[in-house]
TrEMBL record:
Residues annotated as domain PPM-type phosphatase: 158-371
Pfam families: SpoIIE (PF07228)
Alphabetized SMART domains for the sequence: PP2C_SIG (SM00331)
Organism: Micromonospora robiginosa
UniProt entry tagged with the keyword Hydrolase: yes
GO molecular function, one term: protein serine/threonine phosphatase activity
Enzyme Commission code(s) on record: 3.1.3.16
Protein name in UniProt: PP2C family protein-serine/threonine phosphatase
Domain of life: Bacteria
Keywords for the protein's UniProt record, in alphabetical order: Hydrolase
Length: 382
């Protein structure tokens, strides 16, 4: 690490939470002669890059900022540098700097500094509302606020897998959600297809999510995780409310996928350009009956397999009495092969919006998981 990088890192980590970008801008001016620094964060719909300051939002897909965001690489255009801001696969936005120094070392250092900024923003987000409020193009509903606060992130990259998810309608989602965790040996993924309206749906999904986390963190097998969450929901609602969930556990050394389908969203596999619905042993949704026993299934993934989990809000979206799941979904999934999971998810949601000619009315969740194969030399968890 160069002296300039080390100094910028200290500036970012030592700055008050509300002055992180301002202090970084002052340091970039002193070190590199950069007079214009701005942070753009991607909004909840993955449709706009919103400035922290007073500049205009960037929505056009052909803009250099979007190129930097989509490809996760620095872009220099017309004397302005655009650097991806994120951490561990979670894309937060881009950093704009101008005038861009005409120096390869400076470009590399600024790229590293943008990544440091991404880590610091992740560290302080729970302590301030500044960075959350400025990544919204409109007000979130209360239910949507609850759902987004529960998410572990929107994307994750490890040597053996890449993962991304999205909730829609982003500013008004109610009951659909997802959750994941990995420990370097296994990846756990839950995709929830909630029922009900407004805050009641969000509360039901919250109860299920925290019950599943509690069981997972206690080291329980996947079927027992489902059973514990089922009991928690039934105890609260006595069968009056229930929730569908697909639980998955991926062994990162072998590619063995264990699944529990509790009235779940749909699991679709893309292998060698071919799309196939994964057959699941459908079981009762969580909370429907008292004391339900759940069964696990196991599948073997091949290196390069891509899995999509989509909720009924995707499958059943209708235009001119034609369901998206019947007419367009498979065709579009085949086209996502070259895309990274977050880009595939965003493109699928965009295609869905175009299909219904506007924002979605019903909740929809899309999660994309790429199995890249075992990585024996990847080292500890990243």
């Amino acid at each position: 690490m160069s002296e300039a990088e080390a100094r910028a890192r200290r500036i970012v980590t030592d700055a008050p939470t509300d002055l992180i970008v301002d202090r970084l801008a002052a340091e970039l001016r002193r070190t590199y002669g950069i007079t214009d620094t701005e942070l753009y964060q991607v909004d909840y719909r993955l449709a706009e890059l919103l400035p922290l300051g007073g500049d205009e939002a960037i929505a056009g897909p052909g803009h250099p900022a979007w190129h930097a965001f989509d490809h996760q690489e620095p872009i220099v255009a017309d004397g302005t540098g655009w650097f991806p801001v994120g951490m561990r696969g979670e894309r937060r936005g881009v950093l704009r700097v101008a005038p861009m120094p005409d120096d390869r070392d400076a470009r590399r250092e600024l790229d590293t500094i943008a990544t440091v900024l991404g880590h610091e923003l992740a560290a302080v987000t729970s302590t301030t509302d500044i960075y959350l409020t400025t990544r919204r193009s409109r007000r979130l509903t209360l239910a949507a606020e609850m759902q987004w606060e529960m998410l572990p992130g929107r994307s994750r990259i490890r040597p053996s897998f890449s993962l991304a998810g999205q909730l829609e309608p982003a500013y008004a989602v109610r009951g659909d959600s997802f959750d994941w965790s990995d420990d370097g040996h296994r990846l756990w993924l839950a995709v929830l297809n909630g029922f009900g309206e407004g805050v009641a749906a969000a509360l039901l999904t919250s109860l299920a999510t925290y019950a599943l986390r509690n069981a997972r963190r206690a080291g329980l097998p996947l079927a027992d995780q489902a059973a514990l969450a089922d009991q928690a929901i039934y105890a609260q609602h006595r069968g009056g409310q229930h929730l569908s969930v697909l639980l998955m556990e991926l062994d990162l050394a072998t590619g063995t996928l264990t699944a529990v389908d509790a009235g779940s969203p749909h699991l679709i596999r893309l292998r060698g350009g071919e799309v196939a619905q994964q057959t699941l042993d459908k079981q009762f949704p969580l909370g429907m009956f008292d004391g339900t026993d759940y069964r696990e299934q196991r599948f073997q993934l091949d290196r390069g397999d891509r899995l999509f989990v989509v909720s009924d809000g995707v499958i059943d979206a209708t235009a001119d009495r034609i369901r998206y799941g019947e007419s367009a979904l498979d065709r579009f999934l085949r086209r996502t092969g070259p895309l990274e999971p977050l880009d595939a998810v965003r493109s699928l949601i965009g295609d869905l919006r175009a299909f219904v000619a506007g924002d979605l009315v019903d909740d929809a969740v899309v999660v994309c998981l790429d199995w890249l194969g075992p990585q024996p030399d990847a080292g500890p968890a990243q």
